[in-house]
Amino acid sequence: MSRLFATREGDDGLPGPERRLAVLALIFGTTMAVVDATMINLALPSIAADLEVASASAVWVTNIFQVTCAAFLLVFSGLSEVVGRRRLYVAGLALFAVSAAGSALSRDLNTLLAFRALQGLGAAATLSIGPSLYRTIFPSRLLGSALGLSSLVVATGYTAGPAIGGLVLSVADWPWLFALPVPIGVVAVILAWRALPREPGRRGGFDAAGAGCSILALGALFLAMDGVGHQTPVWQSLGWLALSLVVAGFFVWRQRRAPHPLLPLTLFRQRRFSLAVSASGLAFIGQGLAFVALSFLYQQGMGFSPLKTAWLFTPWPLAIMVAGPLAGRLADRVNPSLLSCLGLVVLIAGMIALADLEAEAGVVDCLWRTALCGLGFGIFQPPNNRELMASVPAERSANASGVMSTTRTVGQALGVALVGACLSVGAPVQTALWGGAVAGGLALLASFGRVSLAGEAARTRRRAASERVQ
């Protein structure tokens, strides 16, 4: 870990001591958003009972956060170029903390949903530009290690969220879950304002029309997929999907003509970038499929209790916590695309093993298969993210970061929707797991497609570093 904060002659990024504080601010910000997303689900029954609303209505406490966050990821990555990433990140942290306090004080569902939407806005502001800030804070030679640290933070949050939520609910009422991030948010705001690099905003207009199209297209797409996952009427999901596709078409048209596009489409001319985005989206579809499908398989197919089911999920993020930082560090030394391919092979093997589980299988059978998937995902993600971020010019890092976050969110939601589609037509839940293996196979093809490109880029980078030293 100490090598992440060591400074060499000729390094870009922040000096070592400043790097520590900046990374701490990013860790606080990411942890707040991830833990919130995983622990609030446990409180939904309590919220429904306390506010005297139907369970289906209480689900929107989670849904509105996710929809708002997903819809604004691209918008905030583009806005950061105008106002500066430091200002946007601090504003996002502050909004998240203030709206969390508002959620804790809410005594009716409508007020709670309003503050949860604001929390989603705050989370979108931080998550959309977080990876690009890692690229600014760390020297280029440590980008893979930095993104490995990021994957460790996210995996830790996913692991700790349910445990923290269960612990709080065992001794206090649900409002305390929302109050918990408030002091952490205050500390994060102070750290971020002090430690994150200052940068001038770009002169020029903001693509407001493109932003509106992005919000509407992504929001409608997320609602369509959420509807499939919750088996809402088909016409309703198709309506949201049609709206999303129409607006997305106008968004692309607008981006080709806007003087300052929200998302420069020239990014996708870089094959390394496009293939890394494709591999990431497909891998997250597989993960989204697995997380939901396993809940049904373990409880309905194998008869495990909800508590045991939650415990059986823990090897996945724990394996990412172990493999992610190691893979990120290796990605700074060897071809990251090869590492991504290796991780996907392991992930596919784990998905096939899970799909082949029999109803009478024991706990150990479930644990090692889940751990295998987590190991593969942990090996895949940091090298792939390194390729995604390093394949674009530094001035486009915020845009690349927004694409990365949006791809992850949409991929996971699509995976959930596909499980819902399988269940709605009466297909066995194992069908969804086989679908996850197929998604992993397609991601593997995309990753193989950039192996030679990544190798050439690495050789060019080493030659440039050698010339700087000389």
Automatic annotation (TrEMBL):
It is a multi-pass membrane protein. It comes from the Bacteria. Pfam families: MFS_1. One of its GO terms (molecular function) is transmembrane transporter activity. It is found in: Membrane. InterPro entries: MFS, MFS_dom, MFS_trans_sf. GO terms for cellular component: membrane. PROSITE patterns: MFS. The chain crosses the membrane at residues 21-44, 56-76, 88-106, 112-134, 146-168, 174-193, 205-225, 237-253, 273-298, 310-331, 338-355, 433-453. Residues 22-458 form the Major facilitator superfamily (MFS) profile domain. Keywords: Membrane, Transmembrane, Transmembrane helix, Transport. This is MFS transporter. It comes from Halomonas elongata (strain ATCC 33173 / DSM 2581 / NBRC 15536 / NCIMB 2198 / 1H9).
